[in-house]
# Entry
Amino acid sequence: MNNFSLLCGLKLRTFRNGFHQLRRRSPFELILLIAFFVCGSIGLFAFFFYSFRFFHSQEPFGPILIDETFYLFTFALFVMLFISSAVSSYTSLFRSREVAFLATSPVSWSEIYFLKLTEALWFSSWSFLFVVIPFMAAYGMSKDAGTVFFPVLCLVFFAPLVLLSGILGTMTTVFLIWLLPGRKRRQIAFLIGLGLIAFFFAQASPSVLKEQGSLAGVMSGYLPHVAFAKNGLLPSAWATRGILALSQVGSHESLRFHEGGFYFLLLLSNTLFFLIPSYSIAKSLYPKIFFKSQDHASMTSPRKVRARKGFERWLDRLPYPPKEVMAFIEKDIKIFVRDPAEWSQLIIFFGLLLLYFANLKNLEFHVLKSFWKNLVFVLNTVGTYIVLSSFNMRFVFPMLSLEGSRFWIIDLSPVRFSSLLLEKFLLGTLISLLLTMPLVFLSGWMLEIPLARVIYTTAIGFFVCVALTGLSVGLGAKFPNFKSTNPSEIISGFGGSLLITTHLSYLALVGLFLIFSKESHGLMLLTFAAGSLLAGTIPLKIGLNALKKMEF
# Structure
């Protein structure tokens, strides 16, 4: 695969050139990015470390929960990488213009397949390191396994685990498009899958409720339900057992060393094994599916066409926003709906949150004492905002860049850049509000939090949506990438890296505010609103100025 090595070298050289260009153009931006990453990593490490120390003090179930958390974390990491790789590979393999170009060149389909698999794996996994390394360092320190040695050991095991998740996710995407070529079939299969997940999730309930009012006591009742994360057939369980064995080499050194080596070789051998069916798929199945997927023809019933046009006419009659802004809103909504790589992640993660919040009473969290209920409510709220942040990074941030190389036409049209940014901001904020505010209210309602506190936290969620959307749109205008049509590739640039760190920093402040604001005062809400509005509007102003100075 000489061409494959050449293509990978080209991608690497492009990345290096972009880095050197950034360093020459604005050293300050590079220093700022590094500073954000360092500060963000330190903040995450402190959060994880103090969380582990807190649970360790909750005898007798706290120390047990810490061990179980490691299995759950590795399992969740594997599943999220699997889903992210599957979604990214759909865009990379079937929607990339580069594939159509390479198909006409003397490059084999297997080389194209593995090149795009590598891209999808990089786009979907690089940001997880930002969370994984602080988590592992904090876990290693809490378990006296070494602050430096333990994260390095984890990275050694996670390398084949990440590769295996990417291979399996890409294979799954190819097989789904092969087995379900029609859009309706894929949607039906997707809804059936969500229904099965909802059914199994609803069956979970604590087997025992010990230490009434204790969070650790309630969570101990779920230990039998999280035993699936230790299943011997899961690659994440192999990685976890191998890491724990090698981190305890000091006691029973020979036995632990052999056990850790066995699980590492088991993980590595399975990763290498799945390269064989991947090569077969790339050589014979992928070309057929690629050409078949390029046929976008579909029949729409006249009734749906009339309903769609009637809805568009109704939108055109609205007095605000202006018609040119509304036209862009309609266009972005259609692009979002027509791209399953976008809305599938949205449905999966927000759907799981909805199932979780709707079953909080079945999960017995409402019987906790007031302190624990408020803590769970804050964690649920911040978790919702983290998922919202991923939506903003995946959809809102690339919206301006997806206008493409024809963006100069907008500059010549009567549409002002301020109207264009207003459209992106309004659409992103509206979707964010519809997704998060009902979930936050539902979480507080199910936990039986006082209504005033629930309304207060939901009102805070309004300004969080404004701030996150403003950051995403503003930084998307400041650091656009008009050469790419892949949202994952757009996010992986400097602007996406800066957006991740700013989002996490802002959400950390939101979490601290919710924890320490025990009383629901109007003055505190106004203070938070003012800070959030500044956090959302300043990036918009910076992005607008950058667009005005840009040359096309």
In short: The longest helix spans residues 62-94. The radius of gyration is 24 Å.
